[in-house]
Amino acid sequence: MKRALAAAVLVTLLPVCAAAVDEPADYRMDDYRAPVPDTLSGGTVVTTEEAFDLWEKGEVAFVDVLPQPPKPKGLPEGTIWREKKRHSIPGSIWLPNVGYGAIADVTDGYFRDGLAKVTEGDPDHPVLFFCLQDCWMSWNAAKRAIEDYGYTRVYWYPDGTDGWAFFDYPTEVIPREPEPE
Fold first, then answer.
1. I need a labelling partner for 91 at 20 to 30 A (CA). Which of 31, 162, 164, 175 fits?
2. What is the pLDDT of residues 87-140, one digit of tens each?
3. Residues 129, 157: contact at Cβ < 8 Å?
4. Pair 93, 61: CB distance under 8 Å
């Protein structure tokens, strides 16, 4: 009942809250927290309920791309550094900072390695990308997986953990995938 009500509220509010956004030809390079398009060329856009169904079946690799600043190198001794915990979809891999429009070679390698880990190196393995609602990071990451890395079964979940939590689906704290040294 709660999920049906949540879906009805979202469907009612979406036309009021969101203007149509065209899918760009290239990666989004700035203003990453802004309305996103309804489409992803070469991929499948999923709703919260569709993402939940895919999650329950357990056949799709879920990839969280929420950015997080790394611990700065060379901090003075005694400096306290606390990374913000990420409450995400259970079983997801967290690959922060891979959703920017332009990424460094080391980030590209990190992203490729993370995807290879969750797909066992199979570009036909289904993979779902998400972040937060109205966040271009997941759109960029999904586009990169399709166009640059050759993944063929890509899902994009634009409502991300905001939509997931709104439906009261389970979350858990997940660690970020370690970055190469």
1. 31
2. 999 999 999 999 999 999 999 999 999 999 999 999 999 999 999 999 999 999
3. yes
4. yes
Separation of first and last alpha carbons in the chain? 48
149: amino acid identity, one letter: Y
Q: Are 93 and 112 in contact (CB under 8 A)?
A: no
CB atoms within 10 A of CB 63: 30
Q: At what angle do helices 2-17 and 48-57 cross, to 10 degrees?
A: 130
Contact 23, 90 (CB under 8 A): no
pLDDT tens, position by position, 143-156: 999 999 999 999 99
Residue (of 108, 110, 139, 130) closest to 61 by Cα position: 130
**Rounded distance, CA 133 to CA 57, Å?**
23
- Each residue's pLDDT tens digit, 21-70: 999 999 999 999 999 999 999 999 999 999 999 999 999 999 999 999 87
**Amino acid in position 175:** P
Determine the Cα angle at 70 with ends 60 and 158, to 5°: 35
Domains along the chain?
A: 37-68+84-181 (3.40.250.10)
Task: Please state, in angstroms and rounded to a whole number, the distance separating the CA atoms of residues 150 and 144.
Answer: 9
pLDDT in the model for residue 13: 47
